[in-house]
Amino acid sequence: MSLSYILRTKHRPLPYFKALVSLCCPYSTQQDIWQHASSADFLAAAASISSIPKSKGLPEIIVTGRANVGKSTLLNSVLGRKSLLSTSKKAGHTKSLNFYRVGAEPGKLILVDAPGYGARGRPQWGELFDHYVRMRKELRRIYILFNAKHGLNAFDARMLSMLSESLVTARGVQPFTLQAIITKADTVPVDQLEPVIAKIREDIWAAAPLCLPPIVTSTEMSPPFGVDLVRHNIANACSL
Ligand SMILES: Nc1nc2c(ncn2[C@@H]2O[C@H](COP(=O)(O)OP(=O)(O)OP(=O)(O)O)[C@@H](O)[C@H]2O)c(=O)[nH]1
Ligand SMILES: [Mg+2]
Fold first, then answer.
1. Residue 94: CB within 6 Å of ligand 1?
2. Residue 47 sits in the same domain as residue 166
3. Which listed residue, of 6, 133, 146, 180, carries a Cα 20 to 30 Å from 225's Cα?
4. Nearest atom in ligand 1 to 73's CA
5. Any atom of ligand 1 within 6 Å of the Cβ of 77
6. Burial letters for 50-86: b for 16+ Cβ neighbours within 10 Å, e otherwise?
7. ipTM above 0.85, yes or no
């Protein structure tokens, strides 16, 4: 709904005013979603395809990336929580698709944490992730995470090009979008950060030109760096 349409409409019931507010200050309206984030809750864990929970009809986003890249930590930070999601120094910690409702019941959206891929990944985790991505109609955006210190490796490039292929269907429909996130920016010396980010952007572009350019984050910094941008991005992806 455009601003000019709203202003031209004679009868302006409440939804029009709500739309007007969200057009004028989308950021503050989106913040409401995360203000209720403390009521976020764990919904289900699926370690196999048959245990993937039925959709609640809410928009969903999922994170992926090499094991230990910081997927579960980033989702905790997005939710303003310390330990709703279990994290570990040891790679290969998350072993199932874990579903989290955001906002008080019935919720606004669902965040899905996934096991990592790469040398510490397992084939059955890959199958689970692929099945979810292929079948979930509510999936709005995939977030693919890269460690600032490590950059991309062959596993990342393969994952990016595989996801690229599913970004547009044969009929030209885009079922979901793909967004890159750089994690652990605090582990790179500040004077090296610019070239490091430039190289990661270049490598992402080479493997998946349709991937949205990376948001740089650090959950270690105080306040966390880039996490507000991630919240904003998730809300946008879910049309909230
Ligand atoms: N320095 C730093 N460490 C981080 C950051 N984000 C996460 N970590 C650490 O990285 C380690 C792995 O974090 P997780 O969130 O468990 O990583 P994951 O991608 O979920 O890992 P798997 O579940 O094993 O795939 C933990 O020790 C975190 O504390 C960050 O921004 N900076
Ligand atoms: Mg994890």
1. yes
2. yes
3. 133
4. 15
5. no
6. eebeeeeebbbbbbbbbbbbbbbbbbbbbbeeeebbe
7. yes
Partners of 178 in the β-ladder: 142
Query: Looking at the 3D structure of the chain, how many domains does it have?
Result: 2
Residues of the chain with pLDDT under 50: 1, 3, 6-7, 18, 20-28
Tell me which residue range forms the domain holding 17.
1-35
How many angstroms separate the alpha carbon of residue 5 from the centre of ligand 1?
46
Query: Ligand 1 centroid to 88 CA: how many Å?
Result: 7
pTM value > 0.95: no
Ligand 1 touching residue 76 (CB < 6 A): no
Q: Which residues contact 201 (CB under 8 A, 6 or more apart)?
A: 213, 214
How buried is 226 (Cβ within 10 angstroms: 0-12 exposed, 13-18 middle, 19+ buried)?
buried
pLDDT for the residue 28: 47
Q: Is 64 helix (H, G, I), strand (E, B) or coil?
A: strand
For position 3, what pLDDT does the model report?
A: 46
What residue owns the CA closest to ligand 1's atom 3?
Answer: 184
Residue 35 is predicted with a pLDDT of 72
100 lies in the same domain as 189? yes
